Amino acid sequence: MSRGWVKAIAADPDLRSAIRIVGLVDVKPETALALAAEFDLQDAVIGSDLDAVLAQTTPDILFDVVVPAARRDVVATGFRHGCHVLSEKPMAASLAAGRELIRLADEAGKLHAVVQNRRFISGVRRIRRFVEEGGLGQLTGIHCDFFIGAHFGGFREEMDHVLLLDMAIHTFDAARFIADRKPLAVYCHEENPRGSWYRHGAAATAIFELSDDVTFTYRGSWCAEGANTSWESAWRVTGTRGTLLWDGAESFRANAVAGSEGLLREPVPLEIPEPADLRQTHGHASVIADFIAAIRSGKKPETASDDNINSLAMVFAAIESARTRQRVTI
Predict the structure, then answer these.
(1) In this structure, are residues 207 and 183 in contact, taking their beta carbons and an 8 Å threshold?
(2) Number of Cβ atoms within 10 Å of the Cβ of 135
(3) In terms of domain of life, where is this protein from (predicted)?
(4) Which residues contact 23 (CB under 8 A, 6 or more apart)?
(5) 3-class SS of residue 293
(6) Greater confidence, 112 or 278?
(7) What's the CA gap between 280 and 261, in Å, rounded?
């Protein structure tokens, strides 16, 4: 994932002029050396001791791209050295740990935000604008399907609740953003289907109750072979006026209905406008740009941890519901 972050910075002229990478830390220094060589980061200090490299380089920002179990200590170390911290998702391995990160950021007087890069893609921003402007009338439901047979190897295949914790949070956060509603409760069924190459929880089905009587449903699997959806899921967004369909890639369709007679009403196509601000549609680069703009302006970044914990709460409520087989309030 660190390669994706560095690539996003290298490919964006504004980020290249705003950011100088002064250090790379990895438990395997040879991995950091390879990254430095690939992106010609000749002046970057390389090490395996985060404290030591932060002391030597005194950076403004720490990019935290570690596995969830290591996040708390890495973020706390960054704050101790006076850094603002931008973390990979999920923001923490538990809600208690997430709350602690918010407290530590507040005590340090530094920003902490989370890379929810799916918010910053054109399709999600486009749907948010369409819903916000009333294109579907009053929002009633969001329904997402995610079915991909992903063979990662490594830590994911050993994780508990791998789909809910490591991937579904992208869709949960995007749905919360599009709906602009508060998550209230969830019922979730989690399983590890026959033939799964994951140790635990590669598939899940969840029904979320959002405020204002909006329902969000999620069906997903990371071990479903043969007919992959987009990584962004396949979406159906319903409202009192009509329905929007998005395949998670380039295909958008939205229809209202004509007339008021008959069993099935005739659909009428609706125009779906482009995102309001195209600068916010470049994934990782847009998240990083938003974070730097927040540091400079003193405003809160869009994915600040004290907001993102609401998406994390959706994940852990779904996990608790799956464990207890009960509806869980959020």
Answers:
(1) no
(2) 21
(3) Bacteria
(4) 44, 45, 46, 47, 53, 54, 56, 57, 59
(5) helix
(6) 112
(7) 42
Residue 264's pLDDT band, with cuts at 50, 70 and 90, is: confident
pLDDT in tens, 120-143: 999 999 999 999 999 999 999 999
CATH code, domain with 266: 3.30.360.10
* Alpha helix (H) residue ranges in the chain: 2-11, 13-18, 29-38, 50-57, 71-80, 95-108, 122-132, 162, 169-179, 284-297, 305-324
Domain that holds residue 222: 122-274+310-329
Does 84 map to a domain? yes
Nearest to 23 by CA among 71, 70, 65: 65
pLDDT tens for residues 55-96? 999 999 999 999 888 999 999 999 999 999 999 998 988 899
The closest alpha carbon to 246, from 171, 308, 176, belongs to 171
18 SS3 class: helix
pLDDT at 278 over 80: no
Closest among 319, 2, 330, 313 to 163, alpha carbons compared: 319
**For residue 105, what are the contacts with CB-CB under 8 A and spacing of at least 6?**
79, 85, 111, 112, 305, 306
Sign of CA dihedral 63, 117, 166, 295: positive
**85 lies in the same domain as 136:** no
Q: Annotate 57-112 with DSSP letters as a single string.
A: H--SEEEE---GGGHHHHHHHHHHTT-EEEEPSSS-SSHHHHHHHHHHHHHHT--E
User: What phi and psi, each to the nearest 5 degrees, are found at residue 98?
Assistant: -65, -45
**Side-chain half-sphere CA neighbours of 254 within 13 A:** 19
Tokens 């490299």 belong to 53
Based on the structure, what is the number of domains in the chain?
A: 2
Whether 291 and 315 share a structural domain: no
pTM of the model: 0.89
242-246 and 252-258 as β-strands: parallel, antiparallel, unpaired? antiparallel
Question: What share of the chain in percent tops pLDDT 70?
Answer: 100
Residue 279 falls within a domain, yes or no? no
Q: Determine the residue type at 189.
A: H
